[in-house]
UniProtKB/TrEMBL annotation:
Uppermost EC category: hydrolase
A GO molecular-function annotation: glucosidase activity
GO biological process, one term: pectin catabolic process
UniProtKB keywords: Glycosidase, Hydrolase
Protein's UniProt name: Arabinogalactan endo-beta-1,4-galactanase
Enzyme nomenclature, EC number: 3.2.1.89
This protein's record includes keyword Cell division: no
Organism: Phenylobacterium montanum
Family classification: Belongs to the glycosyl hydrolase 53 family.
Length: 412
């Protein structure tokens, strides 16, 4: 595995789950693990002393995750997921390959589909927690896809123009949803207030100037609702704001800070080489800048890479040759190398996790609003040439990564 650093390479205990925080060393494992962790700590301490870098560790987690929002629908459509030839529960497959986090999207009232509503989300969260994984709940605040191009207000709120009333609606929906989940023992561990909120919440479109008085009020209402609902949780959820492509975070967060957006714990980034102007190195620099500037943890919460340019069905592939980076071919090995190098980049620059978007959106006989089949079958972790058996890319969550020493500021 390529890396720009040459200090020392040690497999991280417990699949890289438990990590330390310090002003200078962001990646020392802490917590349980017995003699193996003690051995690692001794080696790490010796290496850090050798380069003159003291470490003061506190508890932390590196997230290896997958957005599995499509799984319930795919299985209802007949999908079977295999691991080494054996049909298995996909949530079990991801847990076995190192995942400790499942991301799931929530739409307000999606009358065009029976998935990604609250009942479907409850099922996904229960399946994730049943495998011992944490959950990141992604509020879209829409009845359909909200993303970096558009933020379509849900139909129930579409006619509301008063910012105060709209903020109250957003607050109450967020609070009530989280309270309902908690009442069923399904409290999420992390919560996104919006999905790829580059445009203004509840009606913004790409390229349209943001009314930051309105936008800040809406964002702060969502953030406050998470904190208020979280008071009844077994442990307080962490709040994330999410922006598509790292270059957009560089202008969005200064504007948000100036408008008074506050109270969040995490910055989430989508990083797709097809739609980003940043190289892997550029992504790393943005992560480091955001962490230093805002004192919060930073994660890549969406990424993907094709393992082939072939297509399993008639649905056009969303990621084609234009999605490739030099040195990372559209092969199973190329996908695996991209994910390993991306993850090492995130670690090197103080990031706190990598989540792959929809690695189980395999081809079935069902249709999306756009086509029959899947537009993502060549970017999953399941080989459609071999009965949807696991590909090597899924093991990016189980690889050894370089623990490194960097001058990194402590997160809050």
């Amino acid at each position: 595995m390529a890396s720009p650093l040459h200090h020392f390479a040690v497999p991280l205990p417990q699949r890289g789950r438990n990590w330390g925080r310090s002003a200078r060393d962001h990646s020392s494992p802490v917590g349980g693990g017995g003699p193996r962790v003690a051995w690692w700590r001794g080696l790490a301490a010796a290496a850090l002393l050798a380069i003159g870098t003291p470490t003061v560790a506190t508890a932390g987690t590196f997230y290896f995750g997958a957005d599995l929002s499509y799984v319930n629908e795919m299985q209802d459509c007949g999908a079977q997921y295999r691991d080494h030839g054996q049909v298995k529960d996909p949530f079990e497959i991801f847990k076995d390959h190192g995942a400790n986090l499942v991301r799931v999207r929530l739409w307000n009232d999606p009358d065009w589909t029976r998935y990604s509503n609250l009942a479907d989300v409850e099922k996904t969260i229960a399946r994730a927690k049943g495998q011992g994984m944490q959950v990141l709940l992604d509020f879209h605040y829409s009845d359909t896809w909200a993303d970096g191009d558009k933020q379509i207000a849900p139909k129930a709120w579409a006619s509301i123009t008063d910012t105060g009333e709209l903020s109250h609606k957003l607050y109450q929906f967020t609070f009530d949803t989280l309270a309902a989940l908690n009442a069923k023992g399904l409290a999420p561990d992390l919560v996104q207030v919006g999905n790829e909120t580059n445009p203004e919440l509840l009606g913004g479109v790409k390229g349209k100037p943001i009314d930051w008085t309105r936008n800040a009020a809406l964002l702060n209402a969502g953030i406050q609702a998470v904190h208020d609902a979280g008071k009844a949780f077994p442990s307080a959820p962490r709040v994330m704001l999410h922006i598509a492509q790292p270059e957009n975070a560089e202008w969005w967060f200064p504007q948000a800070a100036a408008a008074g957006v506050k109270g969040y714990d995490l910055i989430g980034l989508s990083y797709y080489p097809k739609w980003s102007s940043k190289t892997l190195a550029g992504l790393g620099h943005t992560i480091l800048m955001l962490r230093k500037t805002y004192g919060v943890d930073v994660m890549v919460v969406e990424t993907a890479y094709p393992w082939t340019l072939d297509n399993a069905d008639s649905a056009p592939n969303l990621l084609g040759a234009d999605a490739l980076l030099p040195g990372y071919p559209a092969t199973p090995e190329g996908q695996a190398k991209y994910l390993a190098d991306l993850t090492q980049t995130v670690i090197d620059h103080g990031g706190d996790g990598v989540v792959y978007w929809e690695p189980a959106w395999v081809s079935t006989g069902c249709s999306t609003p756009w086509a029959k089949g899947s537009g993502w079958d060549n970017a999953t972790f399941f080989d459609f040439r071999h009965g949807d058996d696991t590909l090597p890319g899924i093991d990016f969550m189980n690889r050894p990564y370089l623990p490194v020493s960097r001058l990194l500021p402590p997160a809050k």
